[in-house]
Specification:
The structure holds two protein chains of two kinds. By secondary structure, chain A is an alpha+beta fold. Among the domains of chain A are: 107 residues, Uridine Diphospho-n-acetylenolpyruvylglucosamine Reductase, domain 3 (2-Layer Sandwich), CATH 3.30.465; 203 residues, FAD-linked oxidases, C-terminal domain (Vanillyl-alcohol Oxidase, Chain A, domain 3, 3-Layer(aba) Sandwich), CATH 3.40.462. Helices cover 26% and strands 25% of the residues of chain A. In chain A, strands 16-12-14-13-19-20-18-21 form an eight-stranded antiparallel sheet. In chain A, helix 9 runs antiparallel to helix 10. Chain A is globular. The mean pLDDT of chain A is 92. By secondary structure, chain B is an alpha/beta fold. Chain B contains nine helices and seven strands; from the N terminus they run βαβαβαβααβαβαβαα. In chain B, helix 1 links the parallel strand 1 and strand 2. In chain B, helix 3 packs parallel to helix 5. Classes of the chains: A alpha+beta, B alpha/beta. The interface between A and B is medium-sized, with 20 and 16 residues. Bound molecules: flavin-adenine dinucleotide. Flavin-adenine dinucleotide binds next to strand 3, helix 3 and strand 10 of chain A.
């Protein structure tokens, strides 16, 4: 098994760590890489490295890293039931490309096609359809897990490690295969309706109506710079699964070839971007047929877009606020953000239908708001105030995006934090599987 | 990419490498069946299931060991029985230990040369008559830019690949009479498990991009290709460096 020293960073490029990294292509090599690193000082598994912060980063340079993206095969597929087992490094793009033509859809997908099935379990990820479909792990029938003692376990919902692994940030073991129930579909696209929304109040009403009508997908794009009466204005998108099959044009991939200089991203450019985005269509609303990939992954159209934030990187703030607190907490958050002038290209508002199945699953019934901020002086103070508003209203921060929560903030937001610590403490050799985030939140190790 | 209507079979020799997997996916995506030949049975079984599930084609794993040359005639007979219709061959296996390791342990020379050269020639020589009988098919032989010029950094492996290139030229002339094309592929640096920890790599390309390139070359009936194409330029320059200078270079 070959290892090489690699500088790893999350999608936000705000934390870095150099570590010996392996990228096995076969089961045998995967087993060997895990065995070798468990015999030494341990490892962290990665998928697409699409988590923003330090979640997938090794704790120090003696800890190994395991890139799973080449473990991406379909191991079993039943075309009658839509039950599929894949290697955990398979990404969403592959799931869509392999199964949509056969009439089966991976029911929940994040906003990037390059996240893997292993990463999807480790964060119990959600899509634009949480109200109707729940989160990813609601569709997971089981998975194979290599625990820190080196044993291989078949984990189904009745297994004692199921709840700790779902949303468990990769701390219970390395997920090697994943079995999911796909959803039967008859077309290859969704019918999307985009409507301009003038303020936050109208947004909450629009979401209520869509939920009442059981619309398949809903998402809101918000202009994070708009203040006062315009606060919360943006474009509301709803979509329903279509029965039609449209022709797919091969996508031309654009990319950001260099790190943008810090100047490129300033309040003016962000303002112009939001203006352009809001006016990409002139009428009050429009309806189009959009293929799944284009609908789910608009940001993937430009690869390495995270480089527009330059070398210093950026942070994403994503919280969920209980439904009953939305009216109070969202204006406070948006106002704090707009007044900070820290500026975010696009902010996303979505709704969530209920709790996830994992001890640390992010979702709860309510609203989730996500915005990006460049890394610079003052951003930490801003995040502290946003964390406080979130916690005060009974909400929580999404660990997939986080790099700044303190242990105390985390404990206040995640009621099962201590139960998670107990599960990990009772796992033999759990110290072999840790990460910078795990250390920061005292999930594993001496402080736990 | 043209969808070929006739169903053909591609025999992939050395099916566990990432280039082999990517090429198998390319041709399976066009509706062709594949036979996956190699040593890691579990791995090939997984690839076979994957290709069948994705592309609704027939993918069959079969045991093959380049080093066991005495078994190659029986292997060829088995392939003959398995593949009805047009048979194409994609040969990609090789062994590439570090030159330093070979220098320290010269017993590594034989396995390197056997896997990279003799084993390849042996199995191709057993399979060539099958293609001639069918008067159809295509052969892809994956060589290497390392075979274009002997270099201090990997000349044992490079010389075996150079031999393979010469064999491919002869085989091309022989099979031409039966209307069968032979494409020699010289990949530059590919991002694979074999090169994961290699130092001094530049302009690295993905196995998927190389596989797509190769498939295009097959469709066009090309004799020799570099992938990516600019390697042709690099190797033309390297090939023309006078030996008096080359021997002083450390790459
Ligand atoms: C543009 C963009 C849009 C996004 N949109 C959404 C969204 O809409 N909804 C949402 O929920 N998330 C979203 N995300 C976040 C992303 O889905 C999650 O961070 C996801 O976990 C990333 O998966 P990955 O394979 O890249 O994992 P990585 O980032 O590589 O790792 C994330 C965590 O998973 C663990 N892990 C990965 N693979 C394994 C394995 N095989 N075994 C054990 N542990 C493993 C790692 O240790 C780490 O803790 C988005 C991210 C980006 C960049």
């Amino acid at each position: 098994m070959s290892w090489k020293s690699l500088e790893l960073t999350g999608w936000g490029r705000n934390s870095h760590q150099t570590a010996l990294t392996a990228r096995p292509e076969r089961q045998k090599d995967l087993q060997r890489a895990i065995g070798d690193s468990l015999a030494q000082s341990g490892l962290v598994a990665h998928g697409g490295l699409r988590a923003y912060g330090d979640q997938a980063l090794p704790r120090g340079d003696d800890q190994h890293a395991l890139l799973t993206t080449r473990m991406n095969r379909i191991l079993a597929f039943d075309s009658a039931t839509g039950i599929v087992t894949v290697e955990a490094g398979m990404c969403f793009r592959d799931m869509i490309r392999a199964f949509v033509p056969k009439g089966w859809l991976i029911p929940v997908s994040p906003g990037t096609a390059f996240a893997t099935m292993g990463g999807a379990i480790a964060n119990d990820i959600h899509g634009k359809n949480h109200d109707t479909q729940g989160s990813f792990c609601n569709h997971v029938l089981g998975f194979e897990l290599i625990t820190p003692d080196g044993n291989t376990q078949q984990v189904t919902p009745d297994h004692n490690l199921f709840r700790a692994t779902i949303g468990g940030c990769g701390l219970t073991g390395v997920i090697t295969t994943v079995t999911v129930q796909l959803k039967k579909i008859s077309g290859n696209c969704v019918q999307v309706t985009e409507t301009k929304i003038k303020d936050l109040e109208s947004y909450l009403i629009a979401f209520d109506e869509a939920i009442a009508q059981n619309v398949d997908y809903t998402v809101g794009w918000i202009d994070g710079l708009a203040k006062g009466k315009r606060m919360g204005r943006g474009i509301f998108e709803t979509a329903t699964l279509s029965d039609e099959t449209i022709e797919l044009k091969p996508a031309k991939e654009k990319s950001v070839p260099i790190d943008f200089p810090a100047l490129a991203l300033n309040p003016l450019s962000v303002r112009s971007f939001n203006l352009l985005y809001r006016n990409r269509f002139l009428r009050k609303s429009r309806t189009t047929l959009t293929p799944f990939e284009a609908f789910n992954y608009p940001l993937d159209a430009i690869s390495d877009w995270n480089r527009i934030y330059g070398k210093r990187g950026f942070h994403q703030f994503q919280c969920v606020i209980p439904r009953s607190e939305g009216e109070r907490a969202l204006p406070l958050l948006l106002d704090t953000i707009a007044r900070s002038g820290a500026g975010s290209f696009l902010s996303v508002l979505k709704t969530m239908g209920g709790d996830g199945r994992g001890l640390l699953s992010f979702p709860m019934k309510g609203y989730t708001l996500a915005l990006d901020f460049p890394h610079k002086a003052g951003v930490e103070a801003l995040f502290r105030s946003l964390h406080k508003i979130t916690a005060d209203h009974g909400g929580r921060i999404y660990l997939a995006k986080d790099s700044m929560l303190t242990r105390d903030e985390f404990d206040a937001m995640y009621p099962n934090a201590d139960e998670m610590r107990q599960v990990l403490a009772s796992l033999p050799h759990s110290e072999k599987l840790t990460s910078q985030m795990a250390a920061r939140l005292a999930l594993t190790g001496d402080a736990a | 990419m043209s969808i070929q209507t006739k169903n053909e079979t591609w025999l992939i020799l050395g099916a566990s490498s990432s280039l082999a997997r990517a090429f198998a996916a390319e041709v399976a995506g066009q509706g062709h069946d594949v036979i996956l030949a190699g040593r890691d049975q579990d791995d090939m079984a997984a690839t076979a299931t994957d290709l069948t599930a994705r592309f609704d084609i027939k993918a069959t794993p079969t045991a093959f060991d380049a080093m066991r040359m005495e078994q190659h005639p029986t292997f060829a007979a088995a392939i003959d029985a398995m593949a009805a219709g047009t048979l194409n061959i994609f040969l990609v296996f090789a062994q590439m230990p570090e030159q330093d390791d070979i220098d320290a342990d010269p017993t590594l020379v034989v396995p390197t040369v056997t896997a990279t050269y003799s084993g390849a020639v042996s199995v191709l020589h057993c399979l060539a008559p099958l293609l001639e009988q069918r008067q159809a098919g295509h052969v892809v032989i994956v060589g290497s830019v390392a075979g274009d010029r002997g270099r201090i950094k990997n000349y044992v492996y490079g010389s075996a690949k150079a031999g393979l290139h010469a064999y491919a030229q002869g085989l091309r002339a022989r099979l031409f009479k039966s209307g069968i094309g032979v494409t020699t592929v010289k990949p530059g640096f590919l991002d694979t498990a074999m090169t994961w920890d290699a130092e001094g790599m530049f302009l690295v390309s993905s196995p998927q991009a190389a596989a797509a390139d190769i498939n295009k070359a097959v469709t066009k009936g090309k004799d020799v290709i570099y992938t990516p194409r600019f390697w042709w330029v690099i190797m033309t320059i390297i090939k023309h460096i006078p030996e008096a200078i080359m021997k002083k270079l450390a790459f």
